[in-house]
Write a structure and sequence with these properties.
Keywords: Membrane, Transmembrane, Transmembrane helix. By secondary structure, this protein is an all-alpha fold. It has five helices and no strands.
Length: 138
């Protein structure tokens, strides 16, 4: 994803962009705080590097801030964005029993003999085979 590469390609200066995406999509307080922290580290790093001499502690601190942002922002983005989100917004706590859906056996309805079912499966496989052959020729 592009938002993972932006902090790395800009050496941490635009790390706030991927954090802004997370904050807008997830709308959690933690993501907004991370956005503010990453933006402050990026701006602070640039400010410290800008007017200082090459071998001063300010320049070193600024480079460390930018490099830290360059590593932290994509790692946090991937950790949060790839985490599966519950559909109803409620995360079950540890030890909570989550009910499973009822088991639906794969048996044909009682009125459908076995031979009819085999014929349906064969027809479906033939149709799939014809479709794949057509796609392969195209």
């Amino acid at each position: 994803m592009v938002l993972t590469a932006v902090p790395v390609l800009t050496i941490g200066m635009l790390g706030w962009m991927s954090m802004l995406y997370l904050a807008l999509v997830h709308r959690r307080r933690r993501d907004w705080l991370v956005l503010v922290s990453v933006a402050a580290a990026s701006v602070g790093g640039l400010v410290l590097i800008g007017p200082s001499e090459q071998k001063s502690w300010q320049a070193t601190t600024g480079v460390v801030l930018l490099l830290g942002t360059m590593v932290f922002a994509p790692a946090y983005f991937l950790a949060v964005d790839l985490r599966p989100q519950p559909s109803d917004g409620v995360v079950p706590g540890p030890g909570t029993l989550v009910p499973l859906p009822p088991v639906q056996p794969g048996y044909p309805p009682p009125g459908l003999p076995r031979q009819d079912r085999i014929g349906q499966v064969r027809a479906g496989l033939d149709e799939l085979s014809a479709y794949l052959d057509q796609q392969e020729r195209a």
